[in-house]
Amino acid sequence: MAPITALDPDGMTRHSFPEELERLVSDALDAMRSQDLHAALFLPLPEPGKPRVMIGDTDTRLRRQTLQLVDFTADPTCGDPLLIMHTPQETLVARRIEDSAGNLRGALGLRLAPTPDPAASVRAERAARLLGNTLMQWDDLLTLEEELSGEVRQSHALSRQADRDALTALLNNRAFQRRCRHRLGTDIRHHALLLLDLDNFKTVNDVYGHPFGDQYLQTVARALIRALPSKSLLGRLGGDEFAALIALPDGDSATVDRLMRDCFTGIEDGAADLGKPDLGRVSIGCAITTEKLRDVSRLLHRADAALYASKRADHRKGAVYTPETHQNFSARLMRPRFLQALEERRIQPFFQPIRSLLSGRIAGYEVLVRWIDPEKGVLEPEAFSLALSTPELAEKLSRRIIGEALSHFAGLPQRDPLWLTLNVGAGDLLRSELVEDLDRALERHGLDWEHIVIEVTETTMLGEVQGPIFRTLANLRHRGARVALDDFGTGYAGLAHLRSWPVDMLKLDRCFIQDIASSPRDSAFVSALLQLTTAFGIDLIVEGVEDEETASLLRKLGCDLVQGYHYGSPGPLGAD
Hints:
The protein is of the alpha/beta class. It has 18 helices and 20 strands. The protein has helices at about 20-30, 60-75, 120-160, 175-185, 200-210, 210-225, 255-270, 295-315, 325, 330-345, 385-390, 390-410, 425-430, 435-445, 470-480, 495-500, 520-535, 550-555; strands at about 5, 40-45, 50-55, 80-85, 90-100, 105-110, 190-200, 235-240, 240-250, 280-290, 320, 345-355, 360-375, 375-380, 420-425, 450-455, 480-490, 505-510, 540-545, 560-565. Strands 12-13-15-16-17-18-19-20 form an 8-stranded mixed barrel, surrounded by 4 helices. Strands 1-3-2-6-5-4 form a 6-stranded antiparallel β-sheet, sandwiched between helices. Strands 8-9-7-10-11 form a 5-stranded mixed β-sheet, with helices on both faces. Helix 1 runs antiparallel to helix 3 and helix 5 crosses helix 6 (about 210-225). The longest helix is centred in the N-terminal third of the chain and has 45 residues, at about 120-160.
């Protein structure tokens, strides 16, 4: 007899038959062998789309007759689920296969030798029942397998969905980094990790609305898909930040430049179709793997540093990370160097004098931070601003600089009537222990509160009146310190701040006096501001005085306090 075969109704897809069930089927067939069994057919019902089982030489006629016999046995007047039909050519045995609840599960048809004796027919009926029950078990297993397969497919679909950004359908941050780790762990070629950030995206949302912002992000995603090689890994890391990992078969830097140019061009072209101005501007930073560097996290930090360098360069060209150029653009990369420099006291307070034009003497000093780097020389705060944006590092720096500045100032042979201006940020003013820390430091160095001025920027005063920053400044003034507002006129501060906030000094930004010798308007502005501050009882300090001509004009206008390189550059106390 031919082997057992299970086929889908299309006659093409074969199904495996469990070994243990195949053995049971074989046992049932052995029991029928004396009846000269020619063929058997199992048809799952009432779901005709399930696989049929064929044993031996089956044909369409056997299938049709089996269904006819089963239909006959379904007659309510016929209580027997078995039907035997004799013809001169053959004997057909058909049986309905039912489960324990009486539900129809399938039809079994057998083609036997013609006119078997009655006893043989009884044995055939028993064998058919055994064969039918066995095949029903197989059908149950197949149904369970299909259900499990469906659950697996659904699980895979949910997994794919969980890996995708809902808006752009690119990989999300978690999935992108996981895929990158796998690829870099299995593909030995060099790769470029691109990090892209849309310029002014917040403004786009504010001006055109969030639905348009979402459309813009989708446009950028499609542009990146078209611009980069098909096997690149593409992800949206969040907000307006995208990333791509691209293989570099030759490790050629020219390839990286071309990839970044393609990204610039593709995004600009896609954004142009949206019909709004000032779209399509993007900054790109790139980090390239090396033999020793294939860690995704470190590559992202390097690409991020190059990205910030690209933003500052303000031109249509990406930046590829190099340690010499870009390590100061990443807070994470800078952190260990910053902490080491702080520990070795290579980050120091510098002092710039504030002069009185009326007396010609130094009225006070502003404390500025400088990093003495053995390779790059004296670094100003702009060179390590990312470290200062980290609250933990900023607090460490403030404590160290304020402590050392007070120590140096206390060592002056003649302090009175000098004052020391300390720059503090919003993070410092939000620390509840700031006032008590200063109180202890002043007492330790034998200084009074009247010796210090707390200098803050305009952005620090953007909080609410009577808020925590306001209350801290008021507390400092109550103890005897003065408060100076830096860079007045360049940001958001206005007359309302002078009226409402605790301010004793204004520091006028250098941009208002650069052309004072040739601009009557600049001269009139300074004159008007002097009258206003005098009426408010506020001292005015003019910054950026670089020459005697400017100083002379300010003196004629009635200005007293000035600061600038004409009167001394920042340096160690006593160097002037």
